[in-house]
Amino acid sequence: MRRTVATHLTADLAGPATAIFSIAAAADYDLKSESLEIRADDQPIQAAEIVAPDGTRLHRVRCSGGHLALDYQAVVEGQALSAPAEEIDLITYLRPSRYCESDTLGPTAASEFGNLKGVPLLQSVSEWVAEKIVYVPGSSRPTDGAVATLLARQGVCRDFAHLCIALLRSLNVPARLAAVYAPGLMPMEFHAVAEAYVDEAWHVVDATKLAPRYSLLRVATGRDAADTAFLTNNGATLTLGELEVTAVVDDFATESDTSELVELR
Fold first, then answer.
1. Is residue 253 assigned to a domain?
2. pLDDT for 75-90, tens place per residue?
3. Rounded to whole angstroms, what are the CA distances from 3 to 7, 183, 246?
4. The CATH number of the domain where 238 resides is what?
5. Confidence grade of residue 260 (pLDDT, cut at 50, 70, 90)
6. Residue 82 backbone dihedrals phi, psi, to 5 degrees
7. Of 6, 111, 153, 180, which residue is least crowded by CB atoms under 10 Å?
8. What integer pLDDT is reported at residue 256 of this predicted model?
9. The domain containing residue 108 runs over which residues?
């Protein structure tokens, strides 16, 4: 499998700030080529790369303000190894988090899925969220979590993922969020999916069903969207301008069986 991904974005900073980008393919992929160019007022600036223990690659730049522009491109050959599961992961990803209020949703999860375990639980949670929540672009606020999504009955990909994660954690299944490039996604954007730890492996749970899971390319991994934002700024106000994301795969096919277990590789 050969996947080609790219991001172009621009932003304006009102003054001195530190910008942290999470747009690069995760550390475990075989990169055939990769380029990253960041410019401040048309002048190249160097980014410091910081790699998290889970393989998320962050690129940090410091600048005095003005117009920022980023261009990233990568070609990935083959698949990464199966994602490891450290003991600390199986603890961290069972706990409630900012956007995944598994403690609040415990009674709902028990009522709907209390008699299920393992793979049937994953499938039932995914189908239930797909049935209850309508995908509506722009319908949710950046501060909305799983509870707000369930009450509103609508959201975008991160909202679907947060609700799946919260329900699974409520039933003692470690679950986390992965930000990904998603070949086949329409309209094209960064995508968010859940991963659940079942049968000693992390498996993708994507209730949106908007992109084939087998071709997803991991960018960042975390408890929820608070850990996986594609852009974070510290300091002056940042206003996002352009955002263009592309992701293609050389062996594209629609996904015929959404109940099959798929690892994010």
1. no
2. 999 999 999 999 999 9
3. 14, 8, 10
4. 2.60.40.2250
5. confident
6. -55, 140
7. 111
8. 62
9. 87-227
Phi, psi of 122 (to 5 degrees): -55, -45
* CATH, residue 135: 3.10.620.30
CB 247 within 8 A of CB 182: yes
Residue in this structure with the two tokens 């522009």, named with its chain if needed: 69
**How are beta strands 238-249 and 2-13 bridged, if at all?**
antiparallel
110/116 Cα distance (integer angstroms) = 9
Report the predicted TM-score, pTM, of the whole model to 2 decimal places. Answer: 0.95
Name the residue type at position 118. G
- For residue 206, pLDDT over 80 is answered with yes
- Is residue 71 located within the same domain as residue 171? no
Number of domains in the chain: 2
